[in-house]
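Teaching note: in complex prediction, the entire set of molecules is handled at once rather than each chain in isolation. The prompt given to students was simply: 'Predict the structure of this complex.' The entities are:
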Amino acid sequence: MAQCAQSVQEFVQDSFVPTVAVLCSADAERVTRRNNLSFPELLRPFCRLTSEGHLRDPNNLVVVVKGLRISVTGVNTQPLQPGEVRKLLSQAVSGCQPPEGLPANVVTAGDYDLNISDRSVKASVPWYSDWKDTFTQLSSSKFYTATTPWFEAYRENFLQSMPASDHEFLNHYLACMLVVSSREAAPTEQFQRLSQEQHRVQHSGEYTHPKWFIPNTLKYYVLLHDISDGDEQRADSVYEDMKQRYGTQCCYLLKINSRAAAAGPAEQMPDPWSQYLQKSRAQSPVSPAVLSEVDGHDVFCACVAVNSIDTSRKQGGLPASSTPVAHGACLTLNDHDRIRQFIQEFTFRGLLPHIEKNIRQLNDQLVSRKGLSRSLFSATKKWFGGGKVPEKSIAELKNTAGLLYPPEAPELQIRKMADLCFLVQHYELAYSCYHTAKKDFLSDQAMLYAAGALEMAAMSAFLQSGAPRPYPAHYMETAIQTYRDVCKNMVLAERCALFSAEVLKSQVKYSEAAALLIKMTSEDSDLRSALLLEQAAHCFINMRSPMVRKFAFHMILSGHRFSKAGQKRHALRCYCQAMQVYKGKGWTLAEDHINFTIGRQSFTLRQPENAIAAFRHILINDSKQVATQQSAFLREYLYVYKSVSQSSSDVTLPQLPLPCLHSAQTRVFFGHERRLAEGEKQAATHVWLDQEYDGEQAQLWAELEEQVVGVANKGSVPIGFQPTQYCLSCHTDNLRYPLAVVEEPIIVEVVFRNPLKVPLALAELSLLWKFTPKDFSRPPGGVPGEALSNEKEVTALNDIISTEVIPEFTIGPEETKVARLQLLPHKTGELQVLSVLYSLGTVEEDNGTTSRPTFVRGRQDLEIQGPRLNTTKEEKTSVRHGPDHRLDPVITPPMPLLEVFFINFPTGLLCGEIRKAWVEFVNVSAVPLTGLRVASTHPEFFTFGCAASDLTPVTPTASEHCSAYKTMATPPSVAATMLVSPAMFGVSGDDRPTVAEIPLVGGGLGPGEALQIPLWLRGPDREGVHEINFLFYYESVEKNAKLSHRVLRHKAFICASRSLSVRATACHSNTLPRRGGAEEEGGSSMLVFVDVENINTSEAGVREFHIVQVSSSSRQWRLHTCINPTGDRDSRLASRERGKLCFRATRCRTQEGETHARKYTFADLNLGNEQIVSSTTPCADFFFRRGSPSEAQKGGVSVGGANHTRRQSLTPAGGADDGVTGVVQKCSEVELNIIVLWKAYVVEDNKQLILEGQLHVALQTVGKEACSVPQKEEAQEMVLLKFKPDQPPPVSRPTLEQLSRLIKTCLHYPESYDHPFPQKSLCMVPVTLTLSNCSLAQVDVIIDLRHKTTSPESLEVHGTFTWLGQTQYKLQLRPHEVQRLVLKACFFQAGVYNLGTPRVFAKMAQAGTMCETSQQSSMPALIVINSV
Amino acid sequence: MSVITADLRNYPLYIRSVPTQNELKFHYTVHTSLDVVEEKVSAVGKALPDQRELYLGLLYPTEDYKVYGYVTNSKVKFVIVVDSSNTSLRDNEIRSMFRKLHSSFTDVMCNPFYNPGDTIQSKSFDSIVSAMMVQSS
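The expected output is the structure of the full assembly:
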């Protein structure tokens, strides 16, 4: 807001003051020069009157003149040329800048907080918050929201430089002071001369300038007396003489210079001149060309050249302006008072009475002419206006705006009077005069005069105290319009607008003021337009509801005009203020435009930092500009940046805005780039940057590593174990400092995004790091080395850490691209990767130009914020982030580095197929490695064989067509058996071994050594694609404090296709083994049925399967003989064929079973001529590595067994019943594993291949079917979630069915019996009842012979017979005991009888009577009794 | 001609103008016109907020353009700038254009995937605006 320190009234009053000319003799000038001042300048600070003056108006009313100011100027002061005026104004504006560093003034408007640079007292209070307050404050004009001192300076200078015009008299000279020194030889004559001079100037008509108010100008004679070196008496006498000559009213003796100049500034005197003169001094450096021009026109040079300090300074005083000159050095405070006194005297005694007299005279003239009515007068003038015609034509020649009156024209008299009244603050009279004059001028069509009268009428109406009439704003509007459009006088129009705007503002008519100001902007003056637009903008923000956006828009317009006017600082300020409104509101185009302009202006104003910041802002944001605009912005930015970076010698490179660096996505990889497959060798996949991060996988690997570390550390995982991370990203745990190994590369992947639509070129891309060398082998506490950095020269420290430099890197438009930058440390220590260094440039589209595009060097810091913390309450409520150390690796001493290659590694296998592959271990480091182990998610998939077996070919090539199995030629016969301990195969306990130790020659691998060992693979049991993870673990021979071990990962994909499905069932054989040999075997045998089905679906490829051998492996049972097929007959199975095999299994020898409880008996039954030794590698390996039955066959095949174990674990104190159950179940349990070995004939590429494989079936319960192909686990999937703990299953009694199998009964008798009934009526047949206890417990058996079959059909079929002898037996059978009971049956007649009537009841010996149950009802045992 | 939608906080939601070369000027014009819109709304809105006429009429004429405004009840502003020389568009046409815009804007808002405050990228809205521009030019 342009508010000056005065109220509007004061401002208007001060703009129109009586002007007084000064004519000074040379001597008098010399006197004042001692103070470095001319006479007018000497008076200037004292020109405001402190006391009230009085005068009487024509009606004899007293008019009080308050705070009158007079303006004193040298009579010969030249009006400035328009060009000069422009220069002066522009200097005034540019010289006045907003104060810096002052507290900012924040204006809150709506949702905007505007910071308008300001030195306001009211900075903290948003003034508009209370409208009433504002109103009163504004009207009292004590507080201002925003000052624009440059505007005030402009306005002041503008008004001062207004040329005197003919249509108004306000700035015409009213009086003339004639100043003569008392030292003059003849002061009186000098006065005379000066008086004549004045008369000549005014009346000779030679001079168009200066202009005089009234013909008889008041002459005021001043005798200037220099006290320090003048003769006071003489001065007094001269003064007396003067008084006599000119009258006391018009004379004054001014005594100054009480002090010798030599006294110097010992006494601190106030310097009231400085504020008046400093400004003009600052304006003084006008170009010499203009000066000489002025001098040439200076008509007064000859006579009174020295009179004016202005001219003298122009002529030669230029250097003086540069040094601060003390003004008034010879003046004491008394002198100041004297000068003040003098002015007062002059005004009250001289000037005011003179004005009063003139007003009266003019009034009298007007009254005398009042006889003629004004209207009649004008009407007659119109009718008989011949007298005016020639003048009008002249006027039209000179001024198109209307006619020009001669100076003494009666029409002007009234205007003169009005001006006089106005000057002495008699606004009421002035208004009525102006009003009258306006009517006259309008009727004469003297537009210029009319406009002047309108303007002043409005002003005086405004200034009238008590405001009897409202401010006539339309007068002003008409005046401005007339000035501008009719008279084409922009200066006057502008003056008028300035006043009007000020008045409107004081009346809170901001929108009108703004409209007025905006209307005044035009093409002819950029400076004026800029200032007025700025004022208009301030008006908008001061409105009742602040129009922030209009403010901003006009500020931008103003800034544009300022920049056109060369006022760069002001332009920048305007744009910055407008920016506050547009910033971050989504109006991106406007924002970009403002930023761009701010950048340019700042650059030209040597504020490169601001310029860069502004340009940066354009580029960082997602720009909606078109590509060409963006490339222009980019080029500009690069240019500015380059010029800045060249000028500054700063060591640290500045940050670049482009391309966007996604720090959080930075990934760090430790290790070499992955080597791909070499010929047949296939390298371990390990970890590489191309692999996507997968949380589940990472978890899997971590678990594997934990397992293998646990095994390596003898069962316990060390505290503080952390899985090795080779690739760090935002998903990994980066709380620890990662470990890197010396001489192994560190690859940092940074993600760049180009937000622009133009491509960007980066050059010499590299990493900036800081490194602190440290020797970890020495005990801690040593002094760490000095931190090194490659900041100055990227590759300077390559002997410590080699830094890779990417020479060129181009990012396309809106592209996201990664760059991989490598560091290779050569020393141990702590490394910190700080930022990315690069040169940014544009990509030149046209290749014709040879000039290299501009590149600027800079950096972007890699600042990675850790994950947000969310554990404590404090962290939850505030936003805190943890540390992220992925870029701060610790470089540790050398470690071995293993590379693993696979040879002949298949990608597809049949289910259960055995394939032999080779694996090569290479130690590529300079350090020996040891303790090589491997862990896998699928340990059943592969084996390295047991240590004992080394009968396989030593090289991979030799083994190509050999069977993977160890074979012996034997005809098919009784099964060959072999006892094997699982420990031989690295299996201990029931759990599957997930970690396998790899046998190394000499226990380790020296530097550079390689080792090839065989590897057997078995196709997974389930079809489909299997993902198999291998984790190789190894250690250094020497203990490394930082890094205990290293791992290498491999992930293989195996596609398994269906081969055979094997189903097996075991049945108790009812026949007792033959006496003799069979009894030695343990007394019991089973039948095992094996169903084999070819379920292979591939049309090509597999032709047929051959079952070559069936082996068993168990601790208790073994296959004994083959029942079907008999003889050496391969059972071959074409596609979808099914075969059934039947075997007899017997119990192993018990004594062996007892002592070697953990040993397995392998029995091989080969169907061909070759026996595969199943108890060796790889068959046994895979057998032991098979999934545990309960795990692999959850499908319900062996639910009984599983249930049983679970119940045992749940109710350990189950009591007797449970024991009973266990025993009872034991007897129906078998633990027999069937291994089916097959060969498949496959045609592939017209070659026949023989594939081998093995399938495992675990039989667990008699009568239950077991399958090699795992069933679909539907039951498992569908289990409902339970939120209550499982109820322990009720302690159930063994089922009847189970109990009924405790005892196996068998009747031995002759099938037919001949008996001569005629001879002997009773036929007695001996029958042996064999009872065999199947359980492992003592069983009490009751045999009841009295029982009769109750079933009706048995009655029908069979005749009756009776058992003789004891009808009930009680026996006790020890475990597996077989007892025979000889019974006698008695028949009465021939026929067919069923002997199977004895009921056998069994109960456990130690159990109560509860479990007594009848045993399996025996088969019908028919006997034929023949009568002979 | 240019169509601009700004939300409650006067963030631009949708800007479209033909010809495109003078886009910056349109931006400035429309941004500035929001002041007038707010003035009008605050002047009228106090009396009867429910029965306020949504169409604000001609906001202000500039030398080259006429700026029309429309404010929904949720203080979403629509501004249409047309060439001053275009005489075919009367007040009624402009009013119906605003109605169409408003209903289309409502559709955009009903889209559950639209996040209030985001710039509008709806194709149907786009096509409606294009149709209006073709029709008016």
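Point out the following to students. Residues 2-135 of chain B form a domain with the Beta-Lactamase fold (CATH 3.30.450.70). The longest helix of chain B spans residues 23-45.
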